[in-house]
Design a protein that fits this description.
The structure is a homotetramer. Chain A is mainly α. The longest helix of chain A is centred in the middle third of the chain and has 25 residues. The interface between A and B is large, with 69 and 69 residues.
């Protein structure tokens, strides 16, 4: 990860946990659970909305959604630090894989997953 | 979001979707579902491991975990772009809130959530 | 839970785990993770479908969805057995609470959650 | 599904939704999201507990856990009704599949998933 916003944030998050003696709770297993719990909270904001409504949420709800997304990022960065995973590098690798699996001319406008093509 | 790795990644992800005519599927509602689905896959890697084992996964599993985390970051960035949310700024705001809710001297070594203190 | 289909299923699931010496992995924490992982797999079947398409899935996909739902029920029953919770009784209690929180004449056709009314 | 507790519960849940004019929101897609949101809430009760602590939660927390599990069952039954899926039959079919995939003498005490054996 380059020396930029994510690096700084990751380091601040570690410091936050250390000052509270919370690193003992931050096993990868527990952090994956916490991340998934926050993903569930994110879902709850959208579950009864139409797709169109989900694009036009009002300011209050948008603020809450932003904080759920922040929580997800926070646990994602904590987990990457605990497992020594370079998150941005992994994202670029995954994008390269997806370029191969979903050639633009083949999948254009098609929503199926790669395993559903054959 | 500062002009750095996340900004570049967000822009490349948008381009990836546009070239496949996939933006039509990327409503905030659908992206929240996709993110939560990936969080579920992340969980599956850790569900039968002890906390200690989850800290010491071997290289193959770590690679798979890195890709699940990459998928989560990818959907998180797509969602932030669709809703025009500055993810890193939101994370700093959320950390400031957490500093207030969980004063280091009060919660040291205690894992309860804020609402469980009273 | 009345002596019926769920009771029988719960008992068969326990037997399945005992014969494999898997009860050691079936802590409530781990079962909650496994359940949530399956819920994530369920999501993946629907994430790019419109709501209308989700009501009209074809036979193959319906079979897969049925198995994901079966997995969720399986972990739910295992968890209820480990924690000695009467799942059906809890569902009736929760419905009674919901009758109070969401009076039919007040919420008719409105999708907001109780905490969003004020 | 046999004519028993689940059948009755499913019918009462449908009635609850119809009286509120909520069936319009209960597409399979939306119900899968709601179920997954509740699974996330279940996780949150266990995320910082050790496995042993998760087996010994006190009465208050157990009541809350029971209600989260009730919510999951409720959405699972609503979804089975919308898709006309016999949930208990699917669970027995899935168990038969699992008996084949995980022969008791081969997997005894081993937590790996079927695809991790080779």
């Amino acid at each position: 990860m380059s020396k930029d916003s994510l690096t700084k944030l990751t380091s601040k998050l570690k410091d936050f946990a250390v000052r509270r003696d919370w690193e003992q709770f931050h096993s990868p297993k527990n952090l994956a659970m916490a991340l998934s719990g926050e993903a569930g909270e994110l879902l709850e904001h959208f579950q009864w909305l139409t797709e169109q409504q989900s694009q036009q949420i009002e300011a209050n709800k948008k603020q809450e959604v932003a904080y759920e997304m922040a929580d997800i990022l926070i646990y994602l960065l904590r987990l990457s630090e605990r497992l020594d995973i370079d998150l941005v590098a992994a994202a670029y690798e995954k994008m390269a894989i997806n370029e191969e699996r979903y050639p633009a001319d083949k999948v254009k406008g098609d929503f199926r997953r790669a395993e559903e093509y054959e």
